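Reminder to self: tokens first, then the designed residues, so the page reads top to bottom the way the pipeline ran.
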């Protein structure tokens, strides 16, 4: 480096990401890229963050109080995910570390996928494809792979944030579904009316939904929100789709309920302890399993990475970040 030039902040990109995102970050920072799909965590992440002002994460790297204590120079944690259960935001705020996530840019893509997964689950698409590929299709039959209808059915949305509302819109406006939901807060009346949506207590939501889509953020309050007791309230013909986070659903209890016929089928994009999947789920034919890809269209993944990069550039060059989770850190100067 030219000694007459002011030194630039150094950052870590903690996961491989689009090369042009990294190139853009290099215009502003000295950039260290963790070029492996094995996530950095704990001591390894702390070592790699020594002397770094910012970190670009992808929604899995744990950022907790111990890590922050070990990395006193860290000023900004910018995630390309909307979910931020991997980041202790309160601990970051206490240390004056700015945190950003990526809301908004993935809403429609994630809702598209949630709807697709719900339809694949209800109409047994994974099971039917495996059957055909195994060469077991020998004749048409009146009940061959007969599943549950989507149109006109009752869509239960658990968690009515941006993505929940986008799922509800697809159901109500595209498929004539009746929408019921459970959320900490009620939607404004006008939005409920536009969707024809009705708030229900959780037990009634579970009991009334023909297709339950789970979109609630993960945290201590939502850990195993859907467990043995709640699954027992479902209709035996109902489906459950989880695009929220592993841990919102008790996967062991879900496998047991599916085996016992307490619900018809499940579509899961997220898992407790992922990328490990509960072994019982892998053995059940009536479960559609996908590897946490709800936001994975190329355009949306680019938009998520761009937003995280914009946030990091803003945070470390004295501009207001676009989507700060703890903007009070900025007010402190
Ligand atoms: C998100 O953005 O939270 C997605 O689940 C990807 O991690």
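Designed residues (333 positions):
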């Amino acid at each position: 480096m030219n000694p007459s030039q002011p030194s630039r902040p150094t950052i870590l990109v903690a996961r491989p990401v689009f090369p042009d995102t990294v190139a853009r970050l290099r215009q502003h920072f000295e950039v260290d890229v963790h070029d492996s799909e094995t996530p950095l965590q704990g001591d390894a992440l702390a070592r790699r963050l020594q002397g770094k002002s910012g970190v670009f994460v992808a929604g899995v790297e744990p950022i907790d109080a111990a890590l922050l204590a070990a990395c006193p120079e860290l000023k900004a944690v910018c995630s390309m995910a909307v979910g931020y259960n991997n980041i202790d935001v309160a601990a970051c705020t206490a240390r004056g570390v700015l945190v950003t996530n990526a809301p908004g840019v993935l809403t429609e893509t994630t809702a598209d996928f949630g709807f697709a997964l719900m339809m694949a689950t209800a109409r047994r698409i994974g099971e039917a494809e495996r059957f055909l590929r195994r060469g077991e299709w020998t004749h048409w039959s009146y009940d061959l792979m007969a599943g549950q209808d989507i149109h006109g059915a009752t869509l239960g949305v658990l968690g009515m944030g941006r993505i929940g509302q986008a799922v509800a819109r697809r159901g109500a406006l595209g498929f004539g579904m009746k929408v019921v939901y459970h959320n900490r807060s009620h939607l404004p009346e006008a939005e409920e009316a536009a969707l024809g949506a009705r708030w229900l207590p959780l037990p009634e939501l579970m009991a009334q939904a023909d297709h339950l889509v789970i979109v609630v953020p993960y945290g201590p309050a939502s850990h195993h929100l859907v467990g043995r007791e709640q699954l027992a309230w479902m209709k035996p013909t109902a489906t459950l789709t989880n695009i929220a986070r592993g841990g919102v659903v008790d996967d062991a209890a879900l496998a047991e309920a599916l085996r016992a016929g307490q619900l018809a089928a499940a579509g899961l994009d997220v898992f407790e302890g992922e990328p490990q999947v509960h072994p019982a789920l892998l053995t059940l034919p009536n479960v559609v399993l996908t590897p946490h890809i709800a936001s994975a269209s190329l355009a949306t993944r680019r938009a998520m990475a761009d937003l995280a990069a914009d946030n990091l550039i803003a945070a470390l060059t004295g501009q207001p970040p676009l989507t700060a989770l703890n903007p009070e850190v900025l007010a402190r100067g």
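The domain at 107-289 is CATH 3.40.50.720 (Rossmann fold).
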